[in-house]
Specification:
Layout (H helix, E strand, L loop, with lengths): L2 E12 L2 E13 L4 E5 L6 H9 L6 E10 L2 E3 L12 E4 L3 H4 L6 H12 L4 H14 L16 H12 L6 E5 L7 H18 L2 E6 L2 H7 L2 E6 L2 E7 H6 L4 H8 L49 E3 L2 E3 L7 H8 L2 H12 L1
Parallel strand pairs: 3-8, 3-9, 6-7, 7-8
Antiparallel strand pairs: 1-2, 1-4, 4-5, 9-10, 10-12, 11-12
Length: about 325
C-alpha cells in the first residue's frame, strides 16, 4: 500500500470556535492506482491532502489519526524531506504557484539543484526531458509563466512536480480553471504519465465526471467525513449512500434520455458545531429518526464502503433517487 490515512482529524482554530475540517476520515491509495477524492467545496478534500504533505496553515493542527506512507507513519516533522522527492503536488492554479519574475525553466532547475542536489548542466538537461514528457517544447523553458496558456502552465506544473521522480502525486483540482477541451488533454496526460512512471496518485476534485474518466478508486467526502468509497465503476454505477446518489444525478448522462439535472438542495453543516448522527441527514430525502443520533456504522462489501443507516436498502433507494420529485422532498427538509 502506497498511502494509508487512518481516522484523520484536522481542526482549525477560528475566532468563532474550532472547525472540524476533517473528522475521522480514513482511506487508502494502492500502489500504482489513481484515487479520486470527491465532494462539495468545504468537505475537507484539500485539507486532507495538505495534512498528508504536512503543510497545514498556522491555525490548523492534526488532532488525531495518522498518515502512513510506504509503511512508515509521517507527520509535519518528518514529511518535509519527502516533498518533491517522494511526494509531489500539482496545484489548482499553476499561475499562482509559478513565480512570475523567473522563467519556467529556471524554476524547474532550482527544484532539481536545491531539492535534488544535481548539477546545473544536468538539471537543464533534465528540464528538457520533463517538458518533452508533458508535451511541451524544450524551447519554452526560456519563457515566463505569463507567456503560457492555462493548459501549458498546468503541464509545466506537472513537469515540475515530476522533477525528482516521486512515488506519490497529489493533484488538487488541477483542471478546474481550464476549458473542457484542455481539461481532457491534461487528464489524458496525467493518465499516460501515471502508467509510464507507475505513479500512485490522489486526484482532488468536486467534479464526479473527472473521477469517472480518470480514477481507479473513489473516496466520497461530506462534511469532513468519508461516507462512501470503493472501485470507481462500482461506486458510480451502484452508489449506496444517498449523497453519492445525489452527486451522480447532478452531472449529465449522455446515454440517458433524461435531460434534467437534479440538484441536492441545502448546504453542508457548520463544522464548528456538526450535527449528531449522519451529517447529510438535513438534506437527505431518505432520512429516518435513527439517522440523527449516535454514530452511523460503515458497512463494507467487496471493498465498497458506505456509511448509511439504510445501506441494506440501497437498491430501492437508488431507484427512488432517480426521480426528481424525491429530491424535492429534501428541499423541504433543507429549508425547514
Amino acid at each position: 500500500m502506497m498511502l494509508s490515512v487512518e481516522d484523520l482529524q484536522i481542526h482549525y482554530t477560528t475566532r468563532d470556535g474550532v472547525a472540524r475540517a476533517v473528522d475521522g476520515a480514513s482511506f487508502v491509495v494502492p500502489e500504482g492506482k489513481i484515487v479520486g477524492l470527491v465532494g462539495e467545496s468545504g468537505c475537507g478534500k484539500t485539507t486532507a491532502v495538505r495534512a498528508i504533505m504536512g503543510v497545514l496553515s498556522e491555525n490548523g493542527r492534526r488532532a488525531g489519526g495518522r498518515v502512513v506512507f510506504k509503511g512508515q507513519p509521517i507527520d509535519e516533522k518528518n514529511t518535509r524531506p519527502l516533498l518533491w522527492r517522494e511526494i509531489a503536488y500539482v496545484p489548482q492554479s499553476a499561475m499562482s504557484s509559478l513565480d512570475p519574475v523567473y522563467t519556467v525553466g529556471a524554476q524547474i532547475v532550482e527544484v532539481l539543484t536545491k531539492r535534488g542536489g544535481i548539477s546545473r548542466p544536468a538539471a537543464k538537461a533534465r528540464s528538457g526531458e520533463l517538458f518533452d514528457l508533458v508535451g511541451l517544447s524544450e524551447r519554452r523553458l526560456r519563457d515566463y509563466p505569463h507567456q503560457f496558456s492555462g493548459g501549458m502552465r498546468q503541464r509545466a506544473a506537472i513537469a515540475m512536480a515530476l522533477a525528482l521522480n516521486p512515488s506519490l502525486l497529489l493533484a488538487d483540482e488541477p483542471v478546474t480553471a481550464l476549458d473542457v477541451i484542455v481539461q481532457r488533454q491534461i487528464l489524458d496526460t496525467l493518465r499516460t504519465l501515471q502508467k509510464r512512471l507507475s505513479l500512485s496518485m490522489v486526484m482532488v476534485t468536486h467534479d464526479i465526471s473527472v473521477v469517472a474518466y480518470l480514477c481507479d478508486e473513489v473516496v466520497v467526502m461530506y462534511a469532513g467525513q468519508v461516507i462512501e468509497s470503493g472501485p470507481v465503476r462500482e461506486v458510480l454505477s451502484r452508489p449506496r449512500h444517498p449523497y453519492t446518489m445525489g452527486l451522480r444525478n447532478a452531472f449529465p448522462d449522455l446515454l440517458s434520455d433524461a435531460m434534467e439535472l437534479v440538484p441536492i438542495h441545502g448546504s453542508p453543516p457548520d463544522l464548528r458545531e456538526p450535527p449528531a448522527g449522519c451529517r447529510f441527514a438535513p438534506r437527505c430525502p431518505f432520512v429516518q429518526p435513527g439517522c440523527t443520533s449516535g454514530t452511523i456504522p460503515a458497512a463494507v462489501r467487496d471493498g465498497h464502503l458506505s456509511a448509511c443507516l439504510r445501506d441494506s436498502e440501497a437498491d430501492a433507494l437508488r431507484t427512488a433517487a432517480l426521480d426528481p420529485a424525491t429530491w424535492q422532498r429534501s428541499s423541504n427538509f433543507a429549508m425547514s
